[in-house]
Amino acid sequence: MTDADTLRAVAELAKGGKGSPELAPLLERSGCFYLLSRLGKTGKLQRETVFNALCAKERYRACAPVLEKMEEASIPYAVIKGAVLSQAAYGSVSFRHSSDLDLLVSRSRADALKSILLENGFVQGRVTDAGILPYSRREIIFQAGLSHQTAPFVKHTGNPLCPYVNVDVNLDLFWGESRRKADMDFVLSETEEAEVCGVRIRKLPPEMEFVSLCLHHYKDMNSLYLLMRDGLRLDEFCDLYFYLKRVRPDVPGLLSAAERLGAGAYLYYCLFYTGRIFEDPLLEPYLDAFRSPEGEAVLERYGLAEDEYARWEMPFPERLLSGRLPEYLGSLLGEEKRQKVLLNREMME
Length: 349
Prior knowledge:
By secondary structure, the chain is an alpha+beta fold. The protein is built from 18 helices and 10 strands. The strands form 3 sheets. It has a 6-stranded mixed sheet, sandwiched between helices. Helix 9 (206-222) packs antiparallel against helix 11, helix 9 (206-222) packs across helix 12 (251-261) and helix 10 (224-230) crosses helix 17. The longest helix is centred in the first third of the chain and has 30 residues, at 43-72. The radius of gyration is 20 Å and the shape is globular.
């Protein structure tokens, strides 16, 4: 199939059509398990969905005492991405692969949360063949200074299927390179109670949750480091589309939240390219609300900081489907940008 044929087949399948068996390799490769389930069960789908559910349950079991302590200490927080997103967008924690549990807190509460995590057996470190290796002070400072997250926390579970639980502490909705910072008191002012894997949690309300999702995915879709590592991922556009399709966040409320945070252009980017793939009238009210000169300006560029910005020469369908994006970008990067990518790889992986 041509790229255009492939995108039409993906859109047809997403809207409830039969779809084409030729999509299976792409959907498997992209981790689009919900769409893959609509083509019929495969061995890989069954293995992945069962594994995703087991690991999500183990993560929430291990983190339940941490969440309880946060409630007792009156620390405003929300669980974002991962299983809570999978449950919202796809109706099950099984359909989205995740390697960690993401907590969103304000910077003013980061030290209190760190103490709770350490008291509950977590180590700020990475998993190696020899076990958990604590991060060096340099690595902790690097991630705190140049990222919107702290260095991750890890705990050994004793479960051979999910031997380690990783917790990412997110301190902002915007990425580290951004000059804009989110008002976290506003972001966390109206969290909702929910249940995931039998554990009571706090999550963002739908409008703020979709803003958070768009900002996270925009970052992934424009980070030189992540594009060089993973390319452009179809599963992220599936997250956006099926969240809108299943949750239907209120358009005026979504626009108000995005404008308050200065995030409108980034939401337009995510909505525009999600529309390019799925071509669903459902998206039209959202696109109409967010269309702006600032939004149009970000559509054909990549990079997360002014010194990184460059214009795409490769068409969007090819960027998404060819698998050549990391190689393509590698041929374009100058030495300074290449060194920045290598430094991120050294410090973040």
